[in-house]
Amino acid sequence: MATATATGGPAMHHAHPGTAVWVRRPAGAPGGAPEWAPGVVAAADAAGVVVRVEGAGEVAAPAADVHLRAADEGVQDLIRLTHLNEPSVLAALTTRYGAGAIYTQTGPSIVIAVNPFRPVPGLYDAAAMERYRCAGAAGGAVDGAAEAGGAADGAAPPHVFSVASQAYWRMRREGKGQALLVTGESGAGKTETSKLIMKYLAYLGGYQPASSGGGSSSGSESGAAAVADDAAGAPGCAPAGSVEQRVLESNPLLEAFGNAKTVRNDNSSRFGKYIELHFSRRGAISGARIHTYLLERSRLVHTAKGERNFHIFYQLLAGATPEERARWHLGPGAASHRLAAAAGCVALPGVDDAADLETTRHAMRAVGIGPAEQERIFSLLSALVHLGDLEFAPCPRDGDDACALPEAGARALASAAALLGVEAGALLKAVTTRTRVTPDGPIVSPLGARAASDTRDALSKVVYARLFDWLVARINAAIGEDPARASTIGLLDIYGFESFEFNDLEQFCINLANEKLQQHFNHHVFKQEQAAYEHEGIDWSYIDFVDNADVLELIEGRMGLLDLLDEACRFNSTTPRDLADKLLATRPTAAAGAGAAGAAAPRLARAKRHAAAFCVSHYAGPVTYRTDNMLDKNRDFVIAEHRTLLASASCALLAELFGADAAAADGAAGGGAAGGAAGRKGFQFVSVGSQFKRQLAELASKLSQLHPHYVRCIKPNPAGVPAALDSAYTLEQLKCGGIMEAVRIANAGYPLRRGFGEFVDAFWPLAPHLWEPRLARRRAPASDGAGASSDADRDAAGELLRAAERRAPAALRQGADWQVGRSMVFLRATAAGALSRMLAQALDAAAVSVQSGWRGAVARREAARARAAVLRLQAGARGMLARAEARRRREARAAAALQAAWRGLLARRELAAKRAAAVATQTAWRAHVARARFLRLRAAALTLQAGARGAIARAEARRRREARAATAVQAAWRAAAARRALAAARGAATALQAAWRGRAARADFAAQWTPEKNEAARTIQKLWRRRHVTRSRVLRLRLQRAFIAYADLWHSATALQCAWRRHAAVKKAQEMRDELRRATFRRNAAMFQSMAAAAASGAKPRSPAPRAAAPRPAGGRPPSPRVPAPKPAPGGRSVVCTTFRIAAVPAPCGAAPSSPTPAESAAAATAAARLAATWTAPGGYPGYYGSDGVRASYADVVKGDSVSHLPSGERLQQRIGELRERAKVTSLLGVWQQRLQQQQQQRAAAQRSREVQMRQREHAVWQRQQQLMRLHQQRQRLEAEAAELSARRAASGYLGAPARPHQVRA
Question: What is the pTM of this model?
Fold first, then answer.
C-alpha cells in the first residue's frame, strides 16, 4: 500500500462542496489556535481545495492539508474512527479529554493515557478495580472481536486497569508471559501509571473470593477486605509481609533514590525500571524482580536551574532529628548545602519532605532494611552531601597544577571523612592527586582545582550509583524470585523520546532505547493487523511500514556510533570536535521509509550551528547531539585510588560496596585484558554506552518472549494546566510514542472497520428500505453472542455496499476498496470518503425536502402571530412612554441627592489626602535629619579611630625598630668586651712567661759564671748603656706609626658616633613631627567646630588656606634638628674628650672634611703622646705586630664632639677599604652602612606619604565645610517652606499640629 493513504490526501480528489473536512490552519494563524480547523468544502479541483472555515472565511489549501471529517470524534477506540487521520485522532482525544475520559483505546492492546493534572474521583477506587476484575474474569475485556478490531461494543471503557486486566487474564488462560510497556515524556504520568498497574496486579494476585474460606499463597484476606483496605487508604492490598506488600512498598523507596524534580515534572523518574512479577498456577503473586537502567548519576553533581537533586537528599535534610543532624554534621536545612541548593530550588509546593522521609523509612523496614543499616545508608548520604560542599581554589604557589582547600572546605572534608570511615588526609589525597603506575614506580601528580572538582564528582557519582544498585539488590532479595513460577508479567517504566536544545549522552541512550522499543512496537502492530485480517477472513496483501533497523544498525551495529564512541574514550587526547568528526566520517545512508520507494536518505548528518555536534534522524524526527561532555560521561571508570580508599573504610556498608566482590565485578565489567590493562593505568575503563547496549539487548530478548501491551502516557500541555490540551504538543508526543505509526499501518490496509449493525445504522439513508428491518432487529431482545452481527445485518450491510457501488463504481470496488468479514465491514479510506460523500448528498436532498415544507408552515404561523403582536405592541408602547416620563422625574431627584453626597465625599477625600501628604512630608524630613546626624557621627568616629589606630601602629613599629637596633649595638659591644678580655689574658700570660724565663736564665747564669762570661757581660753592659741612642731612633719610628694607627681608629670611632647621633636626631625629629600632626589635628578639629558653629549661625565658612610646604634640601629630605657642631680648626682633626676602649670601625660616607682648631690639635698631640707612652711602657697594653711592623691592638680612642669633622666621601671610602684589607675593621661595617641607607630611604618615603595624607585630610575638611554650607542652605529653604505650609494651613482652617521649627535640623 502507498503511504499516501495514511494522510487522507487522495480522498480529497473525491470531495465535493458541502463535505465536512479538516483543514490545516495557515502559517499566520494565532499562536494559541489549533493546527487543524473544522470546515466545509466550498470548491475542489485538481489544484487544491477551498474550505469555508467558521470565523476565518474561505481558506485555499492543497489536497494534502485537507482531511475528511466525521461526527464520531468521541469513540473509545481510535481504530473505529470513520476517517483515521491526524486531525480526527486529535479531535477524538480532545473531545474525550474535555469530557473527563482520559483513557482512549488504540486497537486491542494500546491505551493512550492523557494526564489530567488533577484528581479524578472514583477513577481508581476499589469499585473500579472490582469492576474491571469482573469484566476480565467474564471475558468482556478480551474476546475475539476485540482482538481483531479493537474494543467491542458493550466492553468496559478504556482504562489502565483494563489493559492490566487483559494482560493478567490472558496470562491465566494461555499460560504465556505478558509485558506492560509504559512510555511517555517527563511529566506525562508514567510513574503514577506504573504504580496504579502494580497496585491493580497486586489486587488481582492477592484476590480471594469471600466464599472460598481458604487462604491463598499470598495472604488470607478476602477480596472485599482487600478492597476495603484500599479504599481506606491502607498501605497495600495484601497483608503486611506478603509479596504484594513488599512489591508495593518498593515504589516509594525507589522513587526517593531515583526520582527528582525537573523543569517538566516534579516527580520525574531518572532511571528506567523493569519489574518482573512472578505468578503461581493459581494466579497469585509468588515473587518479583526489579531491573534498573541508566540511572542519571550526573544529576548528583550537575543540576540545571530550577530543578532539584534526588528526593532522598531533601528528605534527609528536612526530616532528620536534631540528634541525627549533630551525628551526621548536617546543616539546618537544604539551603545550607551546595548539593541540594545549587540549582536554586529547595522546596516543592504541596510536598512535605520530612513526611516523605518517614515513608521512605517505612519502605526500608518493609523490605528488610533495619535501623542499623538505615543508619549506615543515611550516614553515607550525609557524606555525599559534605563531599558536595568541597570547593577547591588554585594554589598561589604551585599555579594551575595544584589546588588549595579553603577553611570551609576543610570542615566539610573532615565531616565527609568521618562519615565515610576514612582518614581526612587520605580522602584529600585521593581527590586532589592522581597516581600513575610506571615501570620506574608510581608517580603522584597534583591536580588543579577543576580536575580536583571532577575527581570529587566522580567519587560521589560512583558511591551513589553503587548504593542505588545495592538498594535494588536488597529489594530483590526481600521480595524474592520464584524459581517455580508458572508465568510472569513484566512492567516496563522507561523514559520517552527526548529532544532538547542541548542533547547529551543521556538523551542519546534514551532515544536508542526508544528506537529499540519502537521497532518492537512496529512489529507487534504489524502482526496484530495480520491477525485481525486472518481472523475476519479478509484477503490482504503486504502492508508496508517504517522499519528503523537502519538507525539501530547505525547506533549499535558493528563499528556503529557506540563502538566509535568507546574507541574515542580510550584515548585521553580525543577532543569533542575529534569525536564528532570521527562519528560523521561513517555517513551511512538508509531507506527513508516505506513511502520513499527505497530512496536513500542520510540518517547521520553534521550539525549546522555547532562544530562539535552531529544529527541523527530518529523515527520521531532529527535530534542534534552535542559531544562536549560525551567523552567524560561515557567513561564509567572507578579510579584506583578511590576504590582502594573506600574498600578499606571502616564503614561496613562502604566496604561492602567496594570490597573484593565489587572489585571483581569491576574487572569483569572492564572486559578481560582491556580491563586489566586499564586497571594497571589507575582506572578500569567501563563504557556507559556499552553497558546500556547490553542491558537493552537483554531487555529486548525478554520482551520478545512476552506478549506486549502498551500504555502511552501523554502530557496535554507543557505548563501542566488541568483541562487544557495543546494539539501540536500532543501530536508530537503521539508521533514519538508510535501511535501515529500504528494509525498509519492501520490506514495502509482497511482503516474503517464497523460491525454490520453499526454500519447499517450509519449509512441506511443510501438504502432507505433497509431501515425498518434494522429498527425491528434493534428493538428485539438481545440474543446470545453479544458483539457478533446477525446474518440479517450481514446481508443488509452487503446489500447497502452493492447499492453504493452502483452509484460510484470507481470508488467502491468490492475486494479492492471494501470487503465483508465474519463480524464487520472493512473499508479503505477512498471507500469511506465516497460513502461519506454519498451520505452527505442523500442527507442534503432529504434536508431540502424537509426544510421546504417546514419553512412554509413556519411562514404562515408567523404572519398570524405578527398581526396579534402589532396590537399588543401599540398598547405597550403608550404605557412604556408614560412609565419612562415617571422614571425620568424620579431619576432627576435621585441625581440631585447623589451629586450632593458625591461632592461631599470628594471634599472629604481631598482633605484626607492633604492630611496624609503633610504627615508623609514631616516623616520624610525627620528621617532625613536623623540619617544626616547619624552619618556625621559615624564619619567623626571613623576619623578618630583611624588616627588612633595609626598612632598605635606607628608607635609599635618604632618600638620594634629600636629593639632591633639596641640588640645589634649590644651584640657588637659584648663582642668587643670579649676581645679585650682575651687580649688582656694573653698579655698577662706573656708577661708571666717572660718573668719566669728571666728568673730561670739568671739562675742558670749564676750557676755557670766564669771569667769569660764576666767579660762578655761587661761588653753587653756597654752596649746596653748605649741603648738610648738606638732606642730613641726606634721610638720615633714607633711613635710615627702609632699616631697613624690612632688617626685611623679615631676616624672609625667618629663615624660610629655620627651614625648613632644621626639616628637619635631622626628619632627626635619623628617625635616632633608626630607632635606637629597632633597639634594640626587639634587645630583642624577646632576649626571644624568653629565652622559648624558658623554654619548653624548662618555665616559662610572660609576654605582653608593651603599649607605651606617646608623647605627641602637638595637631597629631598627635610632638615632634622642636630647638635650644633664646633667650628673646625686647622690640622684636619677633631677635638677629643673622654676616652673609652672600642674596636676600630669605619665612618659612613658623605661627611665633608674640616680643619681642627688649635685646641683640638693640642689635644690630639697629647693623646698621641699618651698612646706612645702606653705602648712603650713596660706595663702597656699587649698586642701583636702585623706584617708591616706596626703594632695593631686594642687602643684608647677618643670620642669626637662633632660629626662634621669627617674626611671627604672618596677619601673616607678609600681609607675604609685599606682598613678592611689590613683586617682592622670589623665585619659589622657593611651591615651598618646598608641599614643606615635603608632607614634613610624609608624615612623619605614615609615623609612623602605623610605629606600626601595631610593634604588629603585638609581637602576632606574643606569638602565637609562645603557640605555643611549646603545643608545649612537646605535647612533654611525647608524652614521657609514649613513656614509657608503653616501659613496655608492657618488660612485654610486646618487644625492639625504644625511642624515645630526646632524639629527640623541640618
Answer: 0.58
